[in-house]
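Record type: ASSEMBLY
Status: queued
Input:
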Amino acid sequence: MATTTPAARTSTAPAPIKAVPIRHYGQWASAAVVLLLAGGLLYSVAANDNIQWSVVGDYMFRPEIFHGIGITLALTVLSMVLGVIGGVLLAVMRLSGNPVLRAVSGGYLWIFRGTPVLVQIVIWFNLALVFPRLGVGSFSVDTNHVISPFGAALLALALNEAAYMAEIVRGGILSVDQGQTEAAHALGYSGAKTMRLIVLPQAMRVIVPPTGNEVVTMLKTTALVYAIGAADLFTEAYNFGSKNFTLFEMYLVASFWYLVMTTVLSTLQSRLEKKYAKGSHAVTTRTGGITRLFFLRNAQGGVA
Amino acid sequence: MSAVMVKAENVHKSFGHVEVLKGIDLEVKNGEVFCLLGPSGSGKSTFLRCINHLEQVSAGRLSVDGALIGYREVGDKLHEMKPKEIAAQRRDIGMVFQRFNLFPHLTALENVMQAPVKIRGVGKAEAREQALRLLDRVGLAERVDNYPGQLSGGQQQRVAIARALAMKPKLMLFDEPTSALDPELVGEVLDVMKDLAREGMTMIVVTHEIGFAREVADTVVFMDGGVVVEAGSPAEVIDAPQHDRTKSFLSKVL
Ligand SMILES: Nc1ncnc2c1ncn2[C@@H]1O[C@H](COP(=O)(O)OP(=O)(O)OP(=O)(O)O)[C@@H](O)[C@H]1O
Ligand SMILES: [Mg+2]
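Status: finished
Output:
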């Protein structure tokens, strides 16, 4: 046999390349500026006599705050659940062959996406002004009994979210190959069963990641219900602060808890996104300078 | 069951102003293997899709096993069928697509089981047993728990055939079932189809596999420009074509 086959030549691996990496002077300079600015800002807040830091610490774990967190989470979860259900219905209506359903869905989206959530919240809460009693025929109830602050908040957030979820779900449905619907129809699936058993399960890949995003956004949006005193985290923090003349401190307390919750959710969200993005190309980041220094020491030079 | 499975009388189909089928007349007998040949764009897929109402016929009559497709005849008037009735008609007509169209979120076994369970209301245990039998028959007993993405094209197409058979159809439609396959995988799918033909299944097969048509078909039809140019036995149409259009097509594919 020949003595210089390609296999024979590569059988001993060459020594790894040891090259001098590119120097990123710009990154170092800008990092120094950022650190300086951030440090200054932090100092001016931390050493500020107008902020009673002991109060912030004391109030961080008050029962009112925890009650508010409970309401905020309940509003987030419930309005997302209702919003997703409503979104699926609206999306299916929008894509149906029935022009009446399409128009209803289109009108709904137009109204609920075209007006601020804050305005919608206040309108639902003040429904009693124009409809003192709700009901049909001889059965009716006092509007103010049905529409509590929490009820109005949930109604407004859920109905608004449904409009946004409808677009996400619609995108998901449209992402599923038309051949799937045809195969199901050819087997004798009805339209509804095709949607439920074949199309929606496949649309999930596209629907789930942005829905995770919506949850994080919703958590922050719930703070708007402070306008109708729905006892969420922000309302509780505000009420407590204004009673005790520690408003700014309470804003910091609320911010802290929002950050905790959004951080947890964002972490879950990015995991979910990775899980559902399987197959799509990975993001390649340029590593150099600071990244290399802090995160890739082992890989670069074996420095522990 | 009537002796004629599919009867097309002067079937027309237009998309907007474009007439794709310009009067198709043909009869597929019970137990017959019926091969449709023709150049691209001649309307073969469209005709096949009309048979299970994936496309709606614009004029003429098309019936399967004695029943009009998509319409009810009351007196001398035609009434459009409700989606539910159309779905019921499709249950008895199996279809196999060029691009397989397996459900990617379900395993091979689930692909074959789902329609009998969810559409026909067959018990899970029974449907599972039947699905395993069918997958064994198409030579995939070992791959029942694989997802479509884990199967080769030929394996996917065989699962798709099993999926259609699970509904116990009286008629099977194949639209270029081997055109999307690598050449070395074509044989395994054709073998399954030959088996099926031997067992007496009524089949309409759109194909460019002239060898398959010659060996298996009872009737071969050559279509061009939305009309049937020539029909007859393989010996007549493939080996001794009468029309120039058939001759020139065959000289290109043979
Ligand atoms: N949904 C549609 N809307 C408009 N035109 C269509 C539609 N489906 C098919 N056509 C047209 O009808 C003609 C026949 O198409 P068809 O798919 O039936 O041909 P075919 O014989 O199956 O060809 P091929 O061998 O390429 O599959 C083509 O010109 C095509 O462009
Ligand atoms: Mg075709």
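Annotation: The pocket of magnesium ion (ligand 2) is lined by residues B 44-45, 175-176 (CB under 6 Å).
Annotation: Chain B touches chain A through 25 residues (CB under 8 Å).
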